[in-house]
Amino acid sequence: MRIGIKISPLTVLRTGIPNYILNLLRSIAEKDSSNEYFLYTNRPIPFDLGLPERFKTVVVRFPSPRLQLWYQVGLPIRMRRDRLDLFHDPVYPLPIGLPVPGVITIHDLSAYTDPGVHSLRASLAGKFYPRFLEKARRIITISRFTGTEIARLFPEAADKVRVVYCGVNPGFRKVENGELLAGVKKKHGLPDRFFLFLGTMEPRKNLERLLDAFESVGDRIRHYMVITGGRGWSYGGILSKIENHPFRERIVLTGFVSNDELPALVSMADFLVYPSILEGFGLPIIESMACGTPVITSSVSAMPEVAGDAAVLVDPFSVSSIAGGLIEMAENESLRNELSAKGLERASLFTWNKAAEETLEVYREAAEEAGV
After folding, report:
1. Co-location of 152 and 206 in the same domain
2. Is residue 259 domain-shared with residue 286, that is, in the same domain?
3. For residues 144 and 117, which has the higher predicted lDDT (pLDDT)?
4. Tens digit of each residue's pLDDT (9 = 90 or more) over 47-72
5. Is 344 left (phi over 0), alpha (psi -120 to 50) or beta?
C-alpha cells in the first residue's frame, strides 16, 4: 500500500504528540518493509527523521502553508498525485475532501468535553470532533478511557475504535552514569533531593494545585520541587504563583529539557508528581517508571489505567489529597522502593514495537473494509 501520514507537528518542540508521531514512525519502519509511506507537512522538518528511503517527506505549501489551507486544499490534491491508498492523521482532523480511506488518532476528547482547559483555538477545533469521527474509517485511541468516552458520546462511531497504547521511548531507562548525572545536575541547577513535575505549563496540568499542596507541606518535607517542561498557554497565573510562593527558593524551573538529558533528570528525582486534570494517556507516567522513579498521579481519566497498581493515586481536584500524596511518598522510602520495582515492570508492558504492530493492523482493517 501507499500510506500517507501527517507529520507537521514535528516542526515544533518534540514533546507530546510530536514524540508520539516520531516514535511510531520509527517503529513502523522496523516492522513494515513492504508498504510505501508519504509523510506530509506544511514546513520542512528541522531534523533528520532517521527513516528508510521508502518514507518520503513531502512539503505541501499550496495554496498556503499557513492556517489549514495546505491541509484542506493542497493535501487532497497531492494525495491523488501520490496515488495514496490510505491516510492517517495522528492528531485527529481529516481533510474535508479526503480522497482515500482515513484513519485518525484521538488522544483525548478534552477539547470537546472540557474546552475550558484548552486554548481558544483548541477548544474551537473540538467542536468538529463529530465530523472527524464520522469521516474516519478507523479511530485509534491511546487508552480504553478515551475509547469508552467516544462510545458514550458518539455511539455510532464505537465500532470503529481500536485502542493502541503508546510505548516508552527506549532512551528512558535508569541512568547510573555518574559523569552524565553530574553534568545534567550542574547544567540545570538541580538540588540533591527533589520531586519532579514533568509537562507543559498550562491549566490542564494542574500545577497551581500542586504548588498549593507544596506550600501546605513544605515545612514537613525536605524536598525541592523541580518543574520541567515548556510553556503552553495561560501560564501567567502559574508563574505568578511560583514567584510569590513561600518556598520559592526551593522551586527550580528548568524549562524544556531535551530527550538526551531527560532520562538522567528523571532518574535523579525521588519521585514524579503528575496530577493532571485530564489525560488521554500520560506519557510521563511510564517514562518515569521506566527510569525506576516512583510516581504520584491522578485518579481520573486515563491515568489509573496507565499506572495500574504501580503508583500513588490522588484526587487532582483536592489540594489536601495531593499534599497527602507528597507526604506519603517523601517520608516512606520503602514505598518508593516498592513502587520503583513495580514501575519498571509496568513500563515494560508499553512498547513502541507493539504500538506499531497494532497500528499496522488498523491500517489493514481500514484498507480491506474500503476494498483497497
Report:
1. no
2. yes
3. 144
4. 999 999 999 999 999 998 887 899 99
5. alpha
Here the CATH number for the domain that contains residue 12 is 3.40.50.2000
- If one counts the domains in the chain, the total is 2
Range of 326's domain?
178-347
Question: Distance of CA 226 to CAs 113, 223, 242, 292, Å?
Answer: 31, 9, 11, 18
Confidence at residue 12, expressed as pLDDT on a 0 to 100 scale: 80
pLDDT digits (tens, 9 = 90+) for 320-370: 999 999 999 999 999 999 999 999 999 999 999 999 999 999 999 999 999
The H-or-E segment that residue 104 falls in is: strand 102-106
Asked whether residue 173 is assigned to any structural domain, the reply reads no
Write the pLDDT tens digit of every residue in 109-121.
Answer: 887 877 666 566 6
Over residues 184-190, the mean pLDDT reads 97
Handedness of CA 141, 144, 147, 149 (dihedral sign): negative
161 and 40 within one domain: yes
Give me the amino acid identity at 144: R
Residue of 53, 55, 57, 102 lying closest to 76 (CA atoms): 102
Domain identity same for 215 and 113: no
| pTM score | 0.93
Angle at alpha carbon of residue 331, lines to 323 and 246, rounded to 5°: 45
User: SS3 for 196?
Assistant: strand
The set of cell numbers assigned to 171 is 532512551
Pairwise CA distance, residues 157 & 147, whole Å:
10
Query: What is the per-residue pLDDT for 117?
Result: 60
Bridge-based pairing of strands 36-41 and 2-6 is parallel
Distance CA 285, CA 336 (A): 15
Residue 83 CB partners (closer than 8 Å, separation 6+): 2
What phi and psi values does residue 281 have, to the nearest 5 degrees? -150, -75
Question: What is the predicted pLDDT for the residue at 93?
Answer: 86
Give the H/E segment covering residue 3.
strand 2-6
d(CA 231, CA 216): 25
